[in-house]
Amino acid sequence: MKILVATEKPFAKVAVEGIRKVVEDAGYELALLEKYTDLQQFYTAVADVDALIVRSDKVTAEVVDAAKNLKIVVRAGAGFDNLNLAACTANNIVAMNTPGQNSNAVAELALGMMVYMARNTFKPGTGSELKGKKLGIHAYGNVGRLAAHIAKGFGMEVYAFDPFISADKMEAEGIIPVATAEELYSTCHFVSLHIPANDQTKKSIGYNLLSKMPKGGCLINTARKEVINEEEMIKVMTEREDLKYCTDIAPDNKEEMAEKFTTRYFATPKKQGAETAEANINAALAAANQIVKFFKTGDKTFQVNK
Ligand code: 3PG
After folding, report:
1. Could you name the CATH architecture of 2-101+276-297?
2. For residue 9, which atom of ligand 1 is closest to its CA?
3. What is the CB neighbour count within 10 angstroms for residue 159?
């Protein structure tokens, strides 16, 4: 069996060494394609492999087509919007993610971003504290739940909206559940996005929700840029000079945002939510172990194209 790790944004070296050990201990071969600059390199590298590990690398129909032996692809991470699931399914390829493995890194970044914005992006002048402020967690999954937990350590009052998680579970964890996204945005000083990018959520965060935020409201996005309606965000931030946006996934209109909103807007230069040694190791090892288990026992836990 040959397993390819194809990462335009490579894992930390220690994580790659961990993958190599898992793969070689199982008697398999590892191939590595890092920092590729041309998709042709990806198509060539994937041609003879049985398994593929990626990060946010797009596994398109073209990649699937080029991978004639491919049986399993694992997205080492949570969001699998970069995988063409229909193409995988049509070619009998099992697609998986590694949920929860990099969540703490992302949750820590979300709270760090709140501090950064509350302190005027570290420019001289008087900022504010997170203590006593209301935080809205938009989707109470692995990352949202950890962000909520850390926020409570800051003394924030934490609310959450998630139609897939019961109010009882949230309440048992000290979180105030709300019934609608509108209620979350109209209640909270900070809203932290933890929704996936899919047909239901794309462009779903726009004028309607953002205009409801209290004075000085700040949106934190460590999820996906695709969930934002960028035109509507510009409109509402132009009308409301108090609103702020901090994101780990630069918008398509990043130049316009930076020019128009200067200190009220910040985007990391390259997505770094999961860029910790710990998260890299956790996600990379989970991906390698899931592949070995799949080949040795047929285990399909974490399959996302069922
Ligand atoms: C995820 O969905 O797990 C995160 O967005 C991390 O993505 P990355 O592996 O590209 O850093």
Report:
1. 3-Layer(aba) Sandwich (3.40)
2. 10
3. 21
